[in-house]
């Protein structure tokens, strides 16, 4: 059997990239369950592995210390519905699609989060995934009783312990603990439900969880680690890694590095799926696709894009001249984004204003064209050691997903590199991942990279 | 128009009262979304105002310091799915039914909770309700980094501030802040989205929320306050009050007291709906209903009931002799439960063992009988100043809801005291409550009772 690629859809529970909401094909349904449920149906028809929701717990004010640019331009952080009830709504109308929500380890408690995802995993029949982030916006910290955020190493230390506790809680019911013997009576076997008695630096949690072990053992764990600490965390804990690369070469080197790190943590590199982000624009001809990309591009307000880039990089870009290039700066935020942004800036010689437009309406050059050309590009990355599959972003929702599903997916299927039917009933099975045995968290927590 | 009663269904996202899961008609579907979705459809067919989920964030160990009795007997705290994804699943298959989840103010952050319920309110088209609890189990505290729980007055002080912050966050977007002008572009008007800049004793929250103001203004707020602090909190904040009374007289005196307290906080007493809990057992004849109640009663393991009563009262009942009466004790837990329990114990002369059985399989004497007799009982309480409606508990799920909906609801409708069609599109409208204007939280926070 040929190796198959995996596809995730990156959905924003809000207006998405600035400009996207201005397109005639965009539907402003971010507050309606049916908006997400219709996308879920489209993606399941297209045999996607999962839908994936990023998140942020503030309206960012990193551009000029104000939320105005986010709100005015409908930028990425302007409006964000809580992804947890959104994925529960989507589960109700689908049977196979995996459903991932982002929750930060910095502003939540492990008992709460372990329980939410265990519950979602049961309710969806084994389709829940958790995208783990540590949050780095000052504006987020200020919504959670902090004057300033924890530094990166504290955040990752806390995240490591958070995952350890979550793992212990998911394992606190043995797989066969629920007995349901009406006669004895014996509802659950008390010998198979365990306190966790965790006492650590950040958390003290007695347990057990009040939800049985999830169908998938643990929900699928997703991470987007670009810094060195982030990569270690991802290599230790992730089933799926989401990343962002402006070129195949940079994707290849990230791919190789992560798979090697995973091995140093004692994991099978095949057990981690790396799905770089793509934003294809598909047209009936190459020329029409380029035209469409330009039309989308024209609708992006440069300040809207810069406002989002400012919070991704955690640098106040309002302080630099708009018509010069982005200078080299210290970037406390997402280092991967910065490298990518520098790469694009240098390659295309962009001013800050142009960069804002580009970042807001960005699309990787390889993936603008006809459906065949886009499929070629994806196949090339996939077969050339740059990706196990892709995380699809679209310039506008929900149309972008419909076009891709109708036009590109059948071509990938015809080439034999994408499924025509779901392989299993859980997300883990569809991703080709082993169900972790009880106690797996322990092995991973102890492993030294 | 005759005044209409309101009906809420009290559902457990787990096995419910001990013994209930042992009944042949019980369906062990607590981990399946379809289990809840089917109940939601039944309740909407029966024109219920809302479905209501209690919650607890631990497996209680108040009986003998161990979780064994809860797990073995499938008692109330043995297994509890997170109610938030559950109500999101139920929203997906209904159009009118209100959906309430319990979240504790003691172990969560106001930004998170305000956002969850704002999101649920949007996604459900204005049907979300929050049952506010402060949590009093030591076992819960020990799942959230505490060696012992906060005392009652700290919990209520924190809860008051929590509600104040939540109110500010719900009001941080003006009702008309979202503009969606594609031309300008103007996504949201920055002048109509406000930071909250809350700095208090327990919380420091900058805001704004990243979700527009909920369709209902605020989600419907529910509270079950039995202590004096609880009653004040409920009179200040609640739209709906859930309570538990063993007799009409005790329900009447609670009803009068709460309506008076609400008035002292400057609220219209009509704006608070008091819905005492009932657990009817309906049969084709009075004799058959009593028999059925006895059959249910027989399946209740006394220790399962005592184990739950122990955590409700927060008293380790394993230390008292099983075949004597419950002595008078200091009750740190739910005082209302204790009064009710004492009332029943004295009236019926129960030993602790009998009390355990009774508490596990309890049913108020008035509401066992034919559908007509049950309807008589409800009408009597409703018309005699004891209730604005009822919160229906059932001895077994989902059958108990089906029986009530099929047999009792039509009789209430025939008598003109219950709706035949939903009056409005939001839960608030169906409850006959005004949509709070922006800033309402401020008036209530400032009001001195």
Task: Tell me what you see in this structure.
With 449 residues, the first copy, chain A, is an alpha/beta fold. The first copy, chain A, has one domain (6-284, 367-446): TIM Barrel (Alpha-Beta Barrel). Chain A is 40% helix and 12% strand. In chain A, strands 1-2-3-4-9-10-11-14 form an eight-stranded parallel β-barrel, surrounded by four helices. In chain A, helix 1 (33-45) links the parallel strand 1 (6-11) and strand 2. In chain A, helix 7 (228-237) crosses helix 8 (248-264). The longest helix of chain A has 19 residues, at 152-170. The first copy, chain A, is globular. The model of chain A has no long low-confidence stretch (mean pLDDT 91). Chains A and B meet through helix 2, helix 3, helix 4, strand 6 and strand 8 of A and helix 2, helix 3, helix 4, strand 6 and strand 8 of B.
């Amino acid at each position: 059997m040929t190796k198959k690629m995996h596809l995730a859809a990156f959905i924003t529970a809000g207006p998405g990239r600035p400009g996207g909401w201005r397109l005639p094909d965009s539907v402003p349904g971010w507050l309606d369950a049916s908006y997400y449920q219709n996308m879920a149906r489209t993606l399941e028809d297209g045999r996607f592995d999962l839908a994936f929701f990023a998140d942020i717990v503030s309206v960012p004010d990193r551009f000029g210390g104000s939320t105005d640019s986010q709100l005015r331009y409908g930028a990425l952080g302007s409006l964000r519905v809580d992804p947890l009830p959104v994925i529960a709504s989507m589960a109700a109308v689908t049977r196979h699609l995996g459903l991932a929500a982002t929750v930060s380890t910095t502003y939540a408690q492990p008992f709460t989060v372990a329980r939410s995802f265990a519950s979602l995993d049961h309710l969806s029949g084994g389709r829940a995934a958790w995208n783990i982030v540590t949050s780095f916006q000052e504006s987020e910290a200020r919504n959670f009783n902090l004057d300033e955020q924890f530094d990166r190493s504290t955040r990752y230390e806390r995240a490591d312990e958070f995952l350890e506790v979550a793992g212990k809680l998911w394992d606190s019911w043995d797989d066969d603990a629920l007995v349901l013997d009406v006669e004895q009576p014996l509802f659950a076997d008390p010998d198979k439900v365990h306190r966790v008695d965790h006492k650590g630096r950040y958390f003290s949690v007695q347990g057990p969880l009040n939800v049985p072990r999830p169908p998938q053992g643990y929900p699928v764990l997703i991470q987007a680690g670009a810094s060195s600490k982030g990569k270690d965390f991802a290599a230790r804990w992730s089933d799926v890694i989401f990343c962002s690369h402006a070129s195949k070469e940079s994707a290849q080197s990230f791919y190789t590095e992560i798979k090697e790190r995973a091995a140093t943590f004692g994991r099978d590199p095949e057990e981690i799926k790396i799905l770089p982000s793509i934003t294809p624009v598909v047209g009936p001809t190459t020329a029409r696709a380029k035209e469409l990309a330009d039309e989308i591009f024209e609708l992006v307000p440069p300040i809207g894009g810069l406002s989002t880039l400012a919070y991704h990089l955690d640098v106040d870009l309002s302080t630099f001249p708009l018509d010069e290039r982005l200078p080299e700066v210290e970037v406390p935020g997402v280092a991967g984004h910065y490298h990518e942004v520098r790469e694009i800036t240098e390659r295309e010689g962009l001013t800050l204003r142009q960069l804002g437009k580009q970042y807001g309406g960005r699309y990787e050059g390889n993936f603008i064209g006809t459906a065949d050309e886009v499929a070629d590009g994806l196949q090339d990355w996939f077969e050339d050691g740059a990706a196990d599959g892709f995380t699809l972003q679209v310039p506008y929702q929900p149309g972008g997903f419909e076009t891709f599903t109708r036009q590109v997916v059948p071509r990938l299927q015809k080439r034999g590199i994408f499924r025509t039917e779901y392989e299993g009933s859980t997300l883990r099975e569809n991703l080709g991942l082993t169900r972790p045995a009880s106690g797996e968290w322990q092995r991973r927590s102890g492993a030294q990279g």
